[in-house]
Fold these 2 entries.
Entry 1:
Amino acid sequence: MSTNVPAQVGTPVEDVLTPCLLVDLDAYERNLDRMARYIDSQGLRHRAHAKTHKSPNIALQQMDRGAVGVCCQKVSEAEAMVNGGVRDVLVSNQVVNPHMIDRLAALAHQARVLVCVDDLGNVDQINAAAQAYGVTIEVLVEIDVGAGRCGVEPGQPAIPLAQRITEAPALRFAGLQAYQGKAQHVHDFEERKAKIDAAVAGVRETVDLLRQEGLECDIVAGAGTGTYTFEGESGVYNELQCGSYIFMDADYQRIRMADGRLIDDFENSLFIYSTVMSKTKAEKAICDAGLKAQSVDSGVAVVFGRDDVEYIGASDEHGVIKDPDNRLRLGEKLKLIPGHCDPTVNIYDWYVGVRNGRVECLWPITGRGMCL
Amino acid sequence: MSTNVPAQVGTPVEDVLTPCLLVDLDAYERNLDRMARYIDSQGLRHRAHAKTHKSPNIALQQMDRGAVGVCCQKVSEAEAMVNGGVRDVLVSNQVVNPHMIDRLAALAHQARVLVCVDDLGNVDQINAAAQAYGVTIEVLVEIDVGAGRCGVEPGQPAIPLAQRITEAPALRFAGLQAYQGKAQHVHDFEERKAKIDAAVAGVRETVDLLRQEGLECDIVAGAGTGTYTFEGESGVYNELQCGSYIFMDADYQRIRMADGRLIDDFENSLFIYSTVMSKTKAEKAICDAGLKAQSVDSGVAVVFGRDDVEYIGASDEHGVIKDPDNRLRLGEKLKLIPGHCDPTVNIYDWYVGVRNGRVECLWPITGRGMCL
C-alpha cells in the first residue's frame, strides 16, 4: 500500500499521479450533510454502509453527523472498521464459516456487533461462538424482500429464527434486515417505488407476526441510495443503510437523469483520475484507466464535466476515449465517474481528498480487499 | 494485507477461508513447463507478462524455466517485480507522467529496464530522466498492429521515433513492441489467425524499413496466450509476452472449446474459492463471491468441475448459483473459474497455492493495485 501513494498533502491536483481515486471533499461533505438532514427530519436512524467506502475515516465522519454506526458485508471489513475506531458494526450479511464466526465473536469485545441470519443452524453456531468468547451478539433475521439473495421469505419463516435467537443465551434478537438490493438501480421511478412498496408490505407483515409472538423488532433495517425515501417514509423501517450517496456513480446519475426525482441532490464526488497516455490517432485518445482501474459491471466510466469527449472502451490498463475534435493532449488529465462505485473502490488503496485545487488528505482504504 | 490471509501453510483445502484465489500448483507448473518447452522448441525468447499474476514468486519461476525477464504495464508494477528479485523488466506500455518517468529511470539502477514509446516528446523526456539518474534505458517503438490502443502505425511512422531514440545519449534503441491485444480473445480460429497475419505483415514491413535506415531490431515483441503460436512461427517476432497461460480463465476456456486448437494444452489452474453462504430457496444457492471477488468484464465466473450447478449472477458480495436439483449445502465450497484472470487477480492480496489437498504456499500479490 505504502509504495503506491498517488500524492502528498499539498500536491496540486494536476500533479496527482494516475490512475487514482479522487474525492471532491466539498461535494462529498455536502452529500454527508444532505443525508444527515434527511435522516434527522424523519426521526430515523442511519447506519451507513461501509461496503461503499471501506474507509474508517469516512465512517467516523458519517457518525460525526449522526449515523449510529456502520454496516459491513464481511467480518474482515468489520475488523477494518473497528481497527479504525468504529465501535458499532452490523454485518448485514450471513457469516457461515466457523473461523469467521469466531472472529465475529472476538470482535464483540471491542465494539457493539450485530449480524444477520437466515438459517437455524447458523443461529446455534453464532451462539456457541459468543458463549466461547464471553460476549453477546445482536442478531437480525434477514428476510428476502425481493433481492432474491439471502434471507427467508417474509412472514411466517422469520418466526422460528427469531425464537431461536431469543432462546440463545449469548444472543439478543435485534430485529429485521430487509434490504431490497434489486430496487436501487431500477431506472423507472414508479417501478422502483413499486418494488419498495412490496418490500414494505412484507416487512410490515413480518413485524406484526413477530409482535403476536411477543418479539419486538428494535431495528427494522434496509434501504439504499436509490430508494431510501420510500423506506424512510414507510412507517416500518427505522434504520436506513444508504452508502452510495456519499460518492454517487454513473449509474445513479443515469437514474437521476431518467426521472429527476428522489436522488436529485446528491453530487458526484468520487472520480477515477486519469491521464491521456497516448494520442497517436485521429478522433481517439488512450487514457491510463482501464479494467484494473474500475469495475465495469454497470458500464464503463463516464467523463465528468465534458461533453466533447467520451470514454468508450476499456482493456486491462487502457481506456479508449472518443475525441471527435481532437481536443485531448498527451498528458492531459480527465476525471471519470465510475460506472459503479463500490467494486471500483475495492481496487484502490487510497482516497486522494481534494479541495481548492490541492490535496488535503490521503485516506487509506483499509477495508479494501477485506472479503473474508 | 496481513490481516486477511485466507489460510496457512498446511491448512486442508476445505478449511481455506473464502473468497480467495486458489492456485492448483500441479496444473500451474504443467502450464509453466508447456510454455517453456514451446519457446525452447522454437528458439524464441519468452518475456512473461507479469500483469497477469503481479507476483514476483511466479515471475521468478517463469525465469527459472527460461524466461528472460518480465513485462509489466506500469512502473509501480515493475517496482514490485524488482523489489521481489526480478532483474529484467520491460514496461510494455507508455510512461508519460514526469514523476513516473523518474521512477522508471531510478529503477534502472537495480535492474535492466526497457520501455515503449509512441511519441517523440516522450523520447526526450525519458532520455532526460535517464541522464539525470545516470542510467541507460532501452526503448522499443510501439506500433499498433490492430489493437487500436497505443502505438504508431506500422511502417514509416516508426522511423523518426527509432532515430530519435538512437540519437538520445542515455537511451538505446531495442526494437519493436507489437502486441495485438484485440486478437487474443477472438473465438474463431481463422479470424484470430487473420488478425495476427495482418500484424505480422505490419511488423515485417517496419523491421525492413528500419533496417534500410541502419536500425536493427534486437527485440520484436508481442503475442499473448490466445495467439502465441502464430507470432512464434512468424519468422519476425522473437520475444513472446504470453501471461495468461499460467492460469487460463473462462473466456480462454470458451475459445478452447470453440476450436480445440492452439491453446488446447493449458489447464485452468486459478480458481476463486467460494462458499455457499445461504440456501433458503429452491433451485438456487447464494455464494460469497460477487463483484468484489472477480472482474466480470468477460462474463461471470464458471463453476469448475460440476455441470449440475451454474453461477448465473453477481452483486457486490454475493453470487447466485443455479442449483436445479438442490444439491448444494450451506457451507459447501465451490471452485470458480474467473471470467478474466488479470483484473480478477488485481483484487486479491494472496495466492493460496494448493497441492495434494492442502496449502503449500501463500504468495503475496505485491503488484496488486500497482496501477501508477
Note: The CA atoms of residues 315 and 326 of chain B lie 21 Å apart.
Entry 2:
Amino acid sequence: MNNVFAHRRRQLQARLAEEKLDRLLITHPADWYYLTGFTGDSGALVISREAGKGAALVTDGRFVAQAGNETNGVKIVQQGGALYPAVGKFLAAGRGRRVGFDSGQLTVAQHSELLHATGKRVAWHRASGLVAGMRMRKEPVELAAMRRAALLAGEVMEAAARMLKPGIREFEVAAEIEYQMKQRGASGAAFETIVAFGERSALPHALATGKRLRKNALVVLDLGAILAHYCSDITRTYFVGRASSRVRGWYRAVLEAQTAAIAAVKSGASCGEVDAAARNVLAGHRLDGYGLDRYFVHSTGHGLGLEVHEDPRVARGQRKVLEPGNVITIEPGVYFPGVGGIRIEDDVAVHENRTEVLTRVSRDFTEI
Amino acid sequence: MNNVFAHRRRQLQARLAEEKLDRLLITHPADWYYLTGFTGDSGALVISREAGKGAALVTDGRFVAQAGNETNGVKIVQQGGALYPAVGKFLAAGRGRRVGFDSGQLTVAQHSELLHATGKRVAWHRASGLVAGMRMRKEPVELAAMRRAALLAGEVMEAAARMLKPGIREFEVAAEIEYQMKQRGASGAAFETIVAFGERSALPHALATGKRLRKNALVVLDLGAILAHYCSDITRTYFVGRASSRVRGWYRAVLEAQTAAIAAVKSGASCGEVDAAARNVLAGHRLDGYGLDRYFVHSTGHGLGLEVHEDPRVARGQRKVLEPGNVITIEPGVYFPGVGGIRIEDDVAVHENRTEVLTRVSRDFTEI
C-alpha cells in the first residue's frame, strides 16, 4: 500500500506544479489518509512540489508513534502547543512561499492562526478540491474495496429485513445492523443507521427511536459500512403487512425513477442530467394534481469513497461531468408528512463503457 | 424540554445585547441542538436579539418536516439551493446589521459565500464561543443525563472486561462494546471504540484491529456512549495474565496521577493546575533516568457534554478556571512504544463545594 500512497503524492506534486504552488496544506483527515495512510484524526499534512522534499505531517503526541507506523516517506513533526500555530511555524521555517490551502477544510479561526504564525513568509492561495478531485477518480484497488463494502452492506440489509417483525423497536434493528456489520469485518457504520417505521419513514433522516413496528407499515432502512476504509450506502423500503395499491404505486414510481437515473449514469453525462432523470420520472406520476417530484425533497445522490459524502454531488443543475472511476449513490425518494416515505438507494461505479451497480440486493417491492 | 430550549435562547439573547450584536449565526449542530432541539446535521440557526423575533432555522428539504416536529417557537426556512448562499440571503433580507459568527465553526469558503450573499447589508463580527460558554455550565437536567450516560459506559466496561480471554480479537471486543451500549439504550458510541492489546496499547488512539489477545498482555479499553444526546468517556487498562512488577509500578503511577488530578478539580482551580497535578506525579516516578511524565504524550482531559470533546481543555498552561456545572475527563496515561501503555479515565463534574466522579468502575489493578 505504501507504493499507492507515494504514487498519489507524486500525482499531487505534478498538480502543484500546474497550479504554480510550492506547497499544499492538507487539513482534512480523509485527504491525508489518501495521501499517506495516516488514520489519526488530528494533524496537518504539507506536500512540497519538490520531489526530494516529499511530505511532512504535523501532529500531536497522541499520534506520533502511530503516524510513524502507518506512513512511509513522510516526515513526522510533533507539535509543541496548539496545532495551527505549530503548522504555521513549520511552514514559515520551510522553503516555498506560495502555499495552497482548501478553503472548505479550514475554519476562519484556523486560517487566522496560520496567517498570524506565517506572516509574510507565506503567500496563501486558495486551492480547493485538488485532493478531492483525485479522490473522485477511484483506482482499481479502491473500486475493489468499495465492491466488498457494498456487498457487505447488502448482506446486512438482507439480515435486517429478516428481523422485521411486529413489536420490534427501531433501535433494536439499528443495533443489530451495526453489530452485523462489525461481525462481517467492517470497522464501523459509515453513518448513523436510519431505521424508520410507519409515518416516521416520511422523515428522510429518521434516526432510530424506541418506536415499535406495527402491522401494515412502511419500513425504511438506510445503512452503510466502512470496510478497509471505504464506505458503502444502501437504502431499501419494505412493507410489513399488505400494502395498499396507493403505496404500491408510490414504490413503483420511485423504483422507476431510480432505474432511470442509474441508466443515465455514464461517462460523459453530467450529474445534473442524472438528477433530472429521476426527477422527470417522478413528475410523470401524479398525486392530487401534483407530480410526485414535489415530494422528492433531496438530491438524487452523492459521491462515495473514503467518506460517505464526497464529490461529486448528484443534484439539480450540477454540471460536473461523470468520468471513469466515479462512484455515486442513486437514491430518489418520496415523502408524505404524517403518512410515510419510500427511498431506494444503490451505489454505482462509472466505467469507460459501462455502469456497475455495486450494491446487490433485490429492489422488488417486498411485503414481509 | 421545549421550555429548556426557549430558556437557553433567552439567555443567549441577553448575551447578544451585552456583545452589542443584533443577530448571531449558529453553524454547529451541537450548538443548534442545545438551543432548539433540532437534531438534523445540516442547517444554520439565526438568533435575533429582539425577543419577539426569536429564532429561525435555515435547512434543506430533507430536514424541514423533522425540524418542525423537533422545535418549538423556531421559524423553519427551507433553503432553495446551497446552504450558505441561502443563509446569506435570509440574513440580508432581515433586520439587524451587526451579525456575529463563530470563526471556529465556519470554513473560509462558507464565510466567503456569506460575505458575497449579504454584501453591505450585514456587518460581520467574530463572536466565538458564546454558545460553547453556555454549554460548559451544565444545567441540572444535563448533569442528570450525563450521570446516566456515565453509568451506562461503566456497565459496558465491566461487560467488556469479562470478554477478555486469550484468542479474542480486538474488533470482536469493540463490536460487543457498541452492541452492549445500544442494548442499554444508547443511541450509539460517542467515538470509535479503542481496543488495544499488548504493544498496541502504546498507541493512545489505537482503533480495533484483527489482532488476537495473547496471554500476559496489557489491554486498554476506551469507550463512550451517547445516551439522550449526552456523551460519556471512560478508559480502563487491564492485564490478562500475571503482570511484572514493572507494569504494576507503571499502573500505580498512572492511578496516583489520576487521583491527584481528580483531587485538584474544584471550582476556582484552573485547568492548567489540574493538568499539572497529573504531570507532577508522573514526573516523580523515574524510568531509565527520566520522569514518567516524558511518556505522558497528551493532555490530561477535555470537556464533555453534547460532544465528546468540548470546552474546557484540560491541558498544560490552560488558564480557564473551573466553575460549577463543568464536566471534564481526567485521563492521564503513559506509553512506551513497542512495549505497551496504560491509561485510566473518568468523567468528573464540578459542583460548588465538591467534585462528583460520574463514572463508577473499579480502578484497582486487575489481572484477568
Note: Residues 333 and 343 of chain B are 4 Å apart (CA to CA).
